[in-house]
Amino acid sequence: MEERLGIIGDALRSYRNARIAQQAGKATDEDLRKIEKYEADIKSKDMAADFIKAGRTAYMFFEGRTDFSWSFVSPSALYRPGKRTGTYEVSVDDMVLIGEQKQGENIFEGRLTGISVADMAIAIADEVEGRKLVGKHWSAWGDIRDDTPGKAYLTLDSVEGGSGP
């Protein structure tokens, strides 16, 4: 993330590490300052609504169309580089949340699902080959507990089971 996003990736990683420390009850004053600053910046410069509207607009082009085969994939909320696990779950027309909402917490707090870029690529390839989700808006999610960044660029020969040209 840091390599591809530069200072933005650094800030995301720093924020994530501070949140993990906070959840574990080990946050320092510096961690708490990082969390407060990052969240304040996001709230004051939030362009997520524009991104969501653009995605929804693109999907509306496909929705209800039967004159050609299509499949519309949206990555799960916590889509990021990481190790390939080889497993994933598919959801159609839903954002999957795990666990129960706790009293007083945001509906999404600690409940969002994610998937590594490597596993998302496999999910997309499986759909291209299997065509099980034609005419559907879908997403895939899986185990992201190991958040070790994976390689951003791979060749077919470097992927387990790859056959290369």
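Second entry:
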Amino acid sequence: MSKQTELDKIKEDILKDKVCPELAKSATQLVFGEGNPDADIVFIGEAPGKNEDLQGLPFVGVAGKFLNEMLDGIGLNRGDVYITNIVKYRPPENRDPLPDEKAAFLPYLRAQLAVIKPKLVVLLGRHSMGSLLPPTLSISQCHGQPKRLDGQVYLPLFHPAAALYNGGMRQTLIEDFNKIPRILAAI
């Protein structure tokens, strides 16, 4: 079975298992993930926003354009990586995903990672970081510093959306993002 077929099955399981039915009801569609199933790098955000909900693809709004620019800056494009979110439905009014929503989707996210087997998982923002790394860590203290946990290397970064509204954070995110090729080479 190909990795893409396995990923399609996980997507079907989310629908079949009716994960977070209240969120599903308020969303246009499931936003599962996009990219290369054989990617060395997986980017994980928190949840789809309005544009993502309409198009069914992760990171296609303003934050997505910024992510594309940063990928371009390190010689990659969306076809080279895999991009997803913890929560796969847009929360109403773009509110933060709730702890029980993140918990409900976590087994499916872990299944995605198990299929793709990336060398590096880039955690975009505190929600994805808090779901996959110990809750004692703070994004403001450990952004840009790779962490190894259970054999997987994670790189917590500020979320591109947050950096768009904060000039200083934008430069920090770009500098942290530019470490990705060195971190990959070291793995």
